[in-house]
Amino acid sequence: MVTDPLVARMRPFGTTIFAEMSALAARTDSVNLGQGFPDTDGPPEMLEAAVRAIREGRNQYPPGPGIPELRAAIAAHQREFWGLGYDPDSEVLVTAGATEAIAAAVLALCESGDEVVCFEPYYDSYAASIALAGAVRRPVTLRPAPDGGYGFDPDELRAAFGPRTRVVLLNSPHNPTGKVFTADELALVASLCVEHDAVAVTDEVYEHLVFDGAHVPLAGLPGMRERTVQISSAGKTFSCTGWKVGWACGPAPLVSAVLRVKQFLTFVNAGPQQPAVAVALGLPRSYYDGFRDSLRDKRDRLCLGLSDAGFDVLRSDGTYFVTADITPLGGTDGVEFCRSLPERCGVVAVPTQVFYDDVSAGRQLIRFAFCKRDEVLDEAVARLRKLSDA
Ligand SMILES: *Cc1c(COP(=O)(O)O)cnc(C)c1O
């Protein structure tokens, strides 16, 4: 009789920190700025379209690659916003959220022992997907930089590439740091991909949340369209994280490889939500601008409050998130700090060290989500102020 039936490659992965912290939030009646989901609904046109689809009987398996109207809407959105042309029939695939697209891409592209270059701290599903594939992650560390945001050492990135590099997994805008990779950084990633003949898998779920300037997809850089699987999702852009409608776009050979795996993970998902997301993708620019402006205001509101409460706040240029250093408040370890925070003042945040291989690089950093109603952010800040009063 085995004591732990779990396969060895998954044993390093415990319950996600979000589950632990959200349970803690519920138990202590805390303001939950841990998990990154919005507390308001997305565009009413989209919600109505989903209700209509259910009533009209669109409740059975959709086609494997996604319904044609959604694939067409994704292709149109790619062309309109990023100037990238994809054939909706062979170069666009609908998935069960970005999470499934990432997992299917890594499983489809990596032989056991192949290496995946990624930036740490990384979104928590990356390490697990790489492990499931039997691949090896080669993390490059993002560190607080003199400009107040995060940067990395270009030599560390160059050194992460080698003969077994198969995939580069890039997330920009980046969760949990709020970093938006600069043009120079993207150019370096692209040139290393070309030099080492690696495939880029890009997680762009925050493509519409760049607060200053414009989002730049890696696929748009020279030599990259033919080697990039570009991934996004409706969850963040349309405040419907529970729907799990995502997509992958890329050249036909890459997308059909991803589909080959995806069909045996979930086969299909979200029948009635697919037509609704097609409606959402067709909303006018004013929706996207209003969404970004609203989140920028929320970022400013929370950052100001966190500074007032005594945190050393790092710059967030995009996403739902901002990170803060707990050192000025006497903290040395983010996990300890976050576990005691609900008890001390009734707020939940997430320690970012759990998203590093090199834990010491993020030991004193914690992440707050600002995708919440203003009164919730204000209440959190009022409670956090008690930390420095005490
Ligand atoms: C939320 C998030 C995802 C997951 O997207 P789903 O569509 O919910 O699967 C993937 N990557 C990053 C960086 C995220 O923040």
Itemize the secondary structure elements and their pairings.
Blueprint lengths: L16 H12 L2 E2 L11 H12 L12 H15 L9 E4 L1 H13 L5 E6 L3 H9 L3 E6 L1 E2 L5 E2 L2 H7 L4 E7 L11 H13 L3 E5 L24 E6 H4 L8 E4 L2 H14 L7 H9 L3 H24 L3 E2 L7 E5 L8 H12 L1 E2 L1 E2 L13 E5 L4 H11 L1 H4 L1
Helix pairs in contact: 1-12, 2-10, 3-10, 4-5, 4-9, 11-13
The structure holds pyridoxal-5'-phosphate.
Pyridoxal-5'-phosphate binds next to helix 4 and helix 8.
Protein name: Aminotransferase
GO cellular component, one term: cytoplasm
Keywords: Aminotransferase, Pyridoxal phosphate, Transferase
Q: Enumerate the spans where pLDDT stays under 50 for 5 or more consecutive residues.
A: none
Structural class: alpha/beta
The proportion of strand residues reads 15-25%
- SSE arrangement, N to C: HEHHEHEHEEEHEHEEHEHHHEEHEEEHH
Shape: globular
Widest sheet, order of strands:
2-10-9-8-7-3-4
Task: Say how many strands there are.
Answer: 15
Report the C-alpha radius of gyration, rounded: 21 Å
Question: Kindly state the mean pLDDT as a whole number?
Answer: 96
